[in-house]
């Protein structure tokens, strides 16, 4: 009976999600079955921060814990401290198959540390400090501040000293390498392809496919 109730719950949620995400119906079902295995609760519970971090570490090969915590925050759409089954599928829809516009909004939300709709220089500093600087570096703050100014000038498209989503979207439209200028928000192409290949249906409509740049803007700036 328990297995039947799980199948029914997965079927109901699949029907709800299938027309609103960048996955086929069978892929939604596969992701929900995966969620049940990760979550360990029947039929659906929530992924806590630690479980989510382990998934991104081991499944998507992401290693920056600061960025992973921010990604968790964006997946957790209702801010209740856990990622539920619906948030899991909808988050992965953008994380793995989002349009450039969807991924731009996702990345902006990751970088907007206090969720006030703006990315400040101080937020940039905090993100770059943990993403770029190794523990052995001596007094790196000055170099980071210089990178912050470079990044801010690239992104502040209307030059008003404030960086909002409109600025960020326009900057990324002009140069896709700016999408992850402040840290990795998405798995690389190889990892994404390997993960999606576990599904029976992996065709990506051209309208929603987006290939992550092999080299980030910031890595090319600091090379």
TrEMBL record:
<dbReference type="InterPro" id="IPR028846">
    <property type="entry name" value="Recoverin"/>
</dbReference>
<dbReference type="InterPro" id="IPR018247">
    <property type="entry name" value="EF_Hand_1_Ca_BS"/>
</dbReference>
<feature type="domain" description="EF-hand">
    <location>
        <begin position="99"/>
        <end position="134"/>
    </location>
</feature>
<dbReference type="Pfam" id="PF13202">
    <property type="entry name" value="EF-hand_5"/>
</dbReference>
<feature type="domain" description="EF-hand">
    <location>
        <begin position="63"/>
        <end position="98"/>
    </location>
</feature>
<keyword id="KW-0479">Metal-binding</keyword>
<dbReference type="InterPro" id="IPR011992">
    <property type="entry name" value="EF-hand-dom_pair"/>
</dbReference>
<keyword id="KW-0106">Calcium</keyword>
<feature type="domain" description="EF-hand">
    <location>
        <begin position="143"/>
        <end position="178"/>
    </location>
</feature>
<dbReference type="Pfam" id="PF13499">
    <property type="entry name" value="EF-hand_7"/>
</dbReference>
<dbReference type="GO" id="GO:0005509">
    <property type="term" value="F:calcium ion binding"/>
</dbReference>
<protein>
    <submittedName>
        <fullName>EF-hand calcium-binding domain-containing protein isoform 3</fullName>
    </submittedName>
</protein>
<keyword id="KW-0677">Repeat</keyword>
<dbReference type="InterPro" id="IPR002048">
    <property type="entry name" value="EF_hand_dom"/>
</dbReference>
């Amino acid at each position: 009976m328990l297995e039947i109730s799980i199948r029914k719950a997965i079927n109901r949620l699949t029907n709800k999600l299938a027309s609103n995400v960048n996955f086929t119906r069978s892929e939604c079902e596969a992701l929900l079955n995966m969620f049940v295995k990760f979550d360990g609760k029947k039929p659906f519970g929530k992924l806590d921060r630690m479980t989510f971090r382990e998934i991104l570490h081991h499944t998507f090969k992401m290693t920056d814990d600061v960025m992973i915590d921010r990604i968790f925050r964006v997946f957790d759409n209702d801010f209740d401290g856990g990622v539920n089954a619906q948030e899991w599928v909808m988050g992965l829809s953008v994380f793995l198959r989002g349009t450039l516009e969807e991924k731009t909004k996702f990345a902006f939300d990751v970088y907007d540390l206090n969720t006030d709709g703006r990315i400040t220089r101080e937020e940039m500093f905090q993100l770059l400090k943990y993403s770029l600087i190794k523990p052995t570096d001596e007094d790196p703050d000055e170099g980071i501040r210089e990178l912050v100014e470079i990044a801010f000038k690239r992104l502040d498209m209307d030059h008003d000293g404030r960086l909002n989503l409109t600025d960020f979207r326009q900057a990324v439209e002009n140069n896709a390498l700016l999408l992850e200028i402040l840290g990795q928000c998405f798995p690389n192409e190889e990892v994404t392809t390997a993960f999606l290949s576990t599904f029976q249906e992996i065709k990506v409509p051209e309208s929603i496919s987006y290939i992550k740049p092999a080299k980030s803007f910031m890595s090319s700036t600091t090379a």
